[in-house]
Design a protein that fits this description.
Blueprint lengths: L1 E8 L4 E7 L2 H9 L13 E8 L2 H14 L2 H13 L1
């Protein structure tokens, strides 16, 4: 199983979109500062995720979300997920 995830840092009030095979380990690494963008904070929490059967599907969806470049869109995904 592969995942597209959105994490949020309250400290810097930012979202980050990524893909992985292991969400828990990936968030742990983000909080340890191993990724350039997310090293700005250490309070990243999972806000949203989607599951996929293949890595290529997950990467395609990750870039689809990133291409939109809209905080409003990201927050709408999170909000929709919260109420489903």
């Amino acid at each position: 199983m592969f995942y597209v995830y959105i994490i949020y840092s309250k400290k810097i009030n930012k979202y980050y979109v990524g893909s992985t095979e292991n969400i828990d380990l990936r968030i742990e690494r983000h909080n340890q500062g191993t990724t350039r963008f997310t090293s700005q904070a250490n309070d990243w929490v999972l806000a949203y995720y989607e599951t996929f059967n293949s890595k290529s599907e997950a990467i395609k969806r990750e870039y689809e979300i990133k291409r939109i470049k809209s905080r409003k869109y990201i927050e709408s995904l999170i909000e929709k997920n919260w109420h489903d």
